Structures are given as C-alpha cells and as structure tokens.
C-alpha cells in the first residue's frame, strides 16, 4: 500500500524535490572548521550545487574515529547558508537537539543507522520540516517503507528517500548501490527518491558514473560528498570527490 495516494514533491526553499529537475546536495562528510565549510559552500555553489550537506554529529562504527564537532559545526553551516543562500542538510541523532534543528536546519537527515530509531521517526512525524530518510545498510525495501510510514503516520509527508547502498558479501565497494530501489520506492511510496553514490560505492572513481546511472534510473537528485581538498578530509576521504569533479557531474546532469 502506497504511503501517498498521489506522487508528491517536497519543497525546500526555492527548490523542489520530485519536480522537473534533479537537485544536487553537496558538501563534506564532516564539518571540520568554519573556514572549511564556508569555502566548500562557496565553491560548490559556483559549480551549481543546490543544497549544502555537512556532518555535524558523525555516527561512526569505531569509537576512535572522528565524531564531528557538534552544534558548533551547525553554527558554521548556518553562516555558510547566509553567505551562499544554500539550504542546509545535516543529520539529527538525538531528540535533545530537535528544537535547534527546527530553527536552523532546512532538511533534517536521518542516517542509515537511525532508520530503525522509531521514537525519533515518530517525533519527526509531528513537525513541519522536510526529512531526508536514508535506507538502512541492511534494510529491505519493506522495512525502509515502514520507516517512512512512521514519519508519514504522524502527519509529516515531507519525506525525501535516499538510497545509499546496502551491505553485501563483496568488499570491493563499501556497499552495493541498489538502483532498482529508485523506481520501486517511487512506485510504492509516491515520494521523491535521491541517491548517494558516495556511500553507495565508497570509491571516489565510481561517484561520477554511478551519479549518471542513478539519474538514468529516475532519481530526483543526488547527495555527494565533496571537498576542496578531498585527500585531507577527516572522514570518508576515499569516497569524497573534488570540487572540479562535482562541477563536471552537475554539468553532465544538466545536459542530460
């Protein structure tokens, strides 16, 4: 049973997910400092990116990996938005920060690990704010749909779904990017669906080609990890592309 009776779009500022044109969300895996995120935002905007992403809180498998710099990072993202006009997307992990996110964040992201955090999803169902719901790395299509329904059941149907790859037996890529999920989820939910080729592959050299494949599959947009100095990124540098390549992907997308 579809979440919505009719296909819908999700508006974020002047942009519309699920409309006639695919959108690109771009930025670093993690906000490292003020100068870094503002510089990336300016250059990503110049290349045609529409929304700015950046990790404020970083859920990591290892407790010894960089965990993000927290609310301080969000203040830098807000400043980057003021300078560039780019709406901001970042991940919420704790309901204690929800009020602050409601005030400052344009799209609240729920990451792969929190797709099953049902109390968090229920709370997001009661707000008037777009939610970007990533697929869990071991989630079936049905489980992903049910997570979206937790949000929609509360009244918030401003949901953008994100295919970001699922765990498989092959370790050549970080995950297996399941592009069949794009037409399936659009059909089964009526919601816009975007693709994350960065997490979906974990390999910088595959981001561009899988971006084109995602758009060919009908994706309503892309979320891409991009950095002015990708080799110096404090997290996920193997899958982070440079700003010039980001511009090439957006140019190709526009041509398509």
UniProtKB/TrEMBL annotation:
Database matches in NCBIfam families: DAHP_synth_Bsub, PRK08673.1, PRK12595.1
Keyword list, A-Z: Transferase
EC number(s) stated in the UniProt entry for this protein: 2.5.1.54
Protein name: 3-deoxy-7-phosphoheptulonate synthase
Enzyme class: transferase
GO molecular function: 3-deoxy-7-phosphoheptulonate synthase activity
Domain DAHP synthetase I/KDSA intervals: 17-252
A matching Pfam family: DAHP_synth_1
Key word Transcription regulation present: no
Family annotation (PANTHER family): PHOSPHO-2-DEHYDRO-3-DEOXYHEPTONATE ALDOLASE (PTHR43018:SF2)
Keyword Transferase listed: yes
Organism: Fusibacter tunisiensis
Source taxon at top rank: Bacteria
